[in-house]
Write a structure and sequence with these properties.
3 domains; mainly beta; Jelly Rolls; rod-shaped; 1 helix
């Protein structure tokens, strides 16, 4: 069974479903097996408490240090309330000594260095509690509004002016504000807008951040996830789930060798007589030169293997043996089958000729058709040794230079042939 991904709290216990405060930052641990990466990761956080607290902060205003106490009034043109930390403000109650809606106020919130209007409306009536969506702020500024007049006639339009205030209250939610998520000491990759809601919110960018850290720390078994909030309001880890990338498939056990095997099939019969193997004459096969043997049809049985008497001229020599049906005096362009081979030697200068056996992947019936065995090199070079007296089943031996015409061998003897062994099976192979 594949390993799982865990999210643990600072105490090493599972974090899912638990509450935390993070005014000074807390570190959760994402447990990931060393060397593994994630295909997905989902973390959802929510405010643990949505209750509302009503405070009556000290005011800075044009009236000095006078603050409404619910009984005596204070005449104000503007006032600023400062509650000392970023909090979720959800409402405001300003009671004026005058009948609404003849007066009101225009409110601004201060958050992270900017003054912004209260949303969705910044002009509010006085007299009753005014609620609005939770908004992060540490200060509030109110400009008092009174009904304007033209002469002695009221216009119904609120304009800035002095207002006698009895009560000035701020309503703050317990939702965390200023939440950030980061990996170790890196810059935060997640910073939500506004207070953390009561409904779970997904921490976006988590899988990308974790995998980036994994790239730099491939052997780490615990990836540090640091969460910070502006105050002591609690949040809850609502949900966490993650999936690891699939492990690479196990190594495939070694299969059959890429080159041809060096042994014929059991039960093969020799189709050609053994070459003399005494001559020192040979035909070069390299990147420019190619050699071939032309053979009579295999009328009895199926072709199973071939063997060439070769000598390596370099430390690593790679080539291909291909069988072609005859097309007049030439081989057909498309090979019936091809077999790669390799000859390796540590001392090319002292290398002796060897018989290179190539066993056909599948025995081939070649009755009624003349066929060619062609040797081409892709790397290095070999010598293919020749005999002077050609057996009847060998029609000819040819060589080719740089893709030119196929030319007959000129030596040794009157009917030279490139030394070759051919094995056939009397009955088809199982």
């Amino acid at each position: 069974m594949d390993a799982s991904v865990t999210l643990l709290g600072p105490d090493g216990q599972p974090a899912k479903g638990r509450q935390f405060t993070a005014a000074n930052g807390i570190e959760l641990s994402v447990g990931v097996p060393p060397g593994r990466r994630l295909t997905s990761a989902r973390l959802r956080l929510a405010a643990a408490d949505g209750s509302v607290q009503t405070v009556q902060p000290a005011l800075q205003s044009d009236a000095g240090d006078k603050t409404p106490d619910g009984n005596a009034t204070v005449t104000l043109r503007w006032a600023t309330a400062d509650w000392g930390e970023e909090r979720a403000i959800v409402g405001l109650t300003v009671v004026a000594d005058g009948p609404p809606p003849r007066n009101g106020l225009r409110a601004r919130l201060f958050n992270r260095g900017s003054w912004l209007p209260v949303m969705p409306l910044d002009t509010l009536p006085t007299g009753s509690q005014q609620r609005f969506p939770p908004q992060s702020a540490s200060r509030l500024n109110a400009e008092m509004l009174v009904e304007g007049k033209v002469g002695d006639t009221a216009t119904g339009v609120l304009v800035p002016g002095p207002l006698a205030i009895k009560q000035f209250s701020i309503h703050l939610s317990q939702q965390p504000c200023g939440l950030t998520a980061a990996i170790a000491d890196e810059a935060p990759f997640f910073t939500p807008d506004g207070p953390l809601p009561l409904t779970p919110t997904e921490v976006s960018g988590l899988v990308r951040a974790l995998n980036r850290y994994r790239n730099d720390h491939p052997q780490a078994s615990s990836l540090p996830l640091r969460i910070r909030c502006a105050g002591q309001q609690a949040f809850i880890v609502s949900d966490f789930e993650a999936e690891l990338e699939a492990l690479p498939p196990p190594p495939t056990p070694p299969g059959p060798p890429v080159g041809p095997p060096d042994a014929p099939r059991p039960g093969e019969l020799a189709w050609l007589p053994e070459g003399a193997a005494s001559t020192g004459l040979a035909r070069l096969c390299d990147g420019r030169h190619t050699a071939a043997v032309v053979l009579a049809p295999v009328d009895s049985g199926e072709l199973s293997s071939v063997a060439l008497r070769l000598r390596a001229l370099g430390p690593r020599n790679r080539g291909q043996l291909s069988i072609h049906l005859a097309n007049g005096a030439h081989p057909q362009d498309t090979a019936l089958l091809s077999m790669d081979f390799e000859l390796v030697t540590t001392e090319p200068a002292a290398a002796a000729p060897v018989w290179l056996t190539a066993r056909l992947p599948t025995p081939q019936p070649l009755a009624g058709r003349t066929w060619w065995l062609v040797c081409r090199m892709s790397e290095g070079a070999v010598l293919w040794y020749a005999d002077p007296d050609r057996p009847p089943r060998v029609t000819d031996s040819r060589h080719q230079s740089a893709g030119g015409p196929w030319l007959p061998l000129e030596a040794p003897g009157d009917s030279p042939w490139l030394q070759l062994r051919v094995g056939v099976l009397d009955t088809p192979a199982a």
